[in-house]
Amino acid sequence: MKSWHMTLGAGLDGLVLRDHDIPHPGSREVLLRVHATSLNQREISILRHGRYPLPVKPDVVALCDGACEVVRLGEGASRVRVGDRVIASIFPHWQDGPFGADRAAQLGGSLDGMLSEYVVLPEDALVSIPEHLSYEEAAALPCAGVTAWNALNGGQPLKAGDDVLTLGSGGVSLFALQIAKAAGARIIATTSGDDKAARLRALGADEVLDHQRMPQWGEHVRRLADGVGVQRVVHVAGDLAQSYAAVARGGEIALVGTMGSPDATIAVGTAFASGATLRPVAAGSRAQLASFVRLVARQRMRPVIARTFTFDEAPAALAWFDAGHGFGKTVIRVP
Fold first, then answer.
1. What is the pLDDT, as a whole number, of residue 263?
2. What is the CATH classification number for the domain harbouring 68?
């Protein structure tokens, strides 16, 4: 079998292809044949920026997302069967409850990841793929999907009629738009360019603002939200001050990422006066992933796929993703 490896700070050309023996599953583990995987911003942070908030072991098998077929069961494994189609929680040991250091082992970080022809994982980490999704579509769910779910449902409960702000057109933001729409919320989205704006409206956004034409978009969002601001912000990138300007008193900002402004600061007075909660989001647990997948199955929701690459094209996929070409998820098909 073959797998692609990466090392913290190795650069975007730092993916290395290696040969291995196919591993054997241990007690309550499962051997999985990977059919597809997908990229997230975390890989750019690890490779190009050389920073990540959790440990990354040297020469780790890359990527945390994967859609797989069960091919062999280890001793005592009983939650899945050979032939089942599954995805895995990116935190295999975080089953439920609050996030903590004892649950922080992560695929494609401190644990080998999914950019491989075969992987072995604990059976407790696995969630069945909805029947209506292909492997390529299912590979988009584990990181971006559960992050969006946690951002909207892991803190204050999302209610029908709430105003929700999403930023941009990456995987987390598009899933958040779909989840919020399914809950009956009103969605205001920011993006750049008329084409992306049209696509966001087609997905269900009620209002779309161009953040390049309107850099101070926070106050405009507040006016659109009845002058009081949005109840929820899914903040993945950009100016955090604008998210504070947009959020309602007593609302919540789910801090998913700091792309574009990693060293941004907020005045204590601004944060206090907002009356809003700033909640960092670390993807999600297996229980949250299972809840999100049940919603995907009920709503027959489909992720937005920007482009699909072959396994051999993994370095090209990473470069294309980093260049910001995609609207939605970048997927790698594994042979």
1. 59
2. 3.90.180.10
- 55 and 190 co-located in one domain: no
- What is the enclosing helix (H) or strand (E) of 180? helix 171-182
Residue 115 pLDDT: 98
- Which residue in 213, 146, 158 sits closest to 187, CA to CA? 158
- Domain of 251 in residue numbering reads as 155-280
Question: In this structure, are 9 and 133 located in the same domain?
Answer: yes
CATH number at residue 225: 3.40.50.720
> Rounded to an integer, what distance in angstroms lies between the CA atom of residue 286 and that of residue 99?
11
DSSP 264: -
pLDDT at 335: 86
Provide the total of helices (H) and of strands (E) in the chain, helices listed first.
Answer: 10, 16
Determine the 3-state secondary structure of 299 from DSSP.
helix
The structure tokens listed for 195 are 């084409």
3-state secondary structure of 259: strand
17 and 122 co-located in one domain: yes
Check whether residue 71 and residue 200 sit in a common domain. no
Mark the ranges of the chain whose per-residue pLDDT is less than 70: 258-264
Shared-domain flag, residues 6 and 142: yes
What is the predicted pLDDT for the residue at 261?
58
Same domain, 100 and 119: yes
- The CA distance from 34 to 157, in Å, is 35
pLDDT of residue 264: 65
Give yes or no: residues 250 and 165 share one domain.
yes
In terms of domains, do 87 and 233 share one? no
Asked if residue 174 lies in contact with residue 167, where contact means CB atoms within 8 angstroms, the answer is no
Report the pLDDT value the prediction gives residue 259, as an integer from 0 to 100: 60
Q: How far apart are CA 266 and CA 151, in angstroms?
A: 20
Ranges assigned E (strand) in the chain? 2-6, 16-19, 29-38, 60-61, 67-73, 85-88, 118-122, 126-128, 163-167, 186-191, 207-210, 230-237, 247-259, 277-280, 305-310, 329-333
Answer whether 0.85 is exceeded by the pTM. Answer: yes
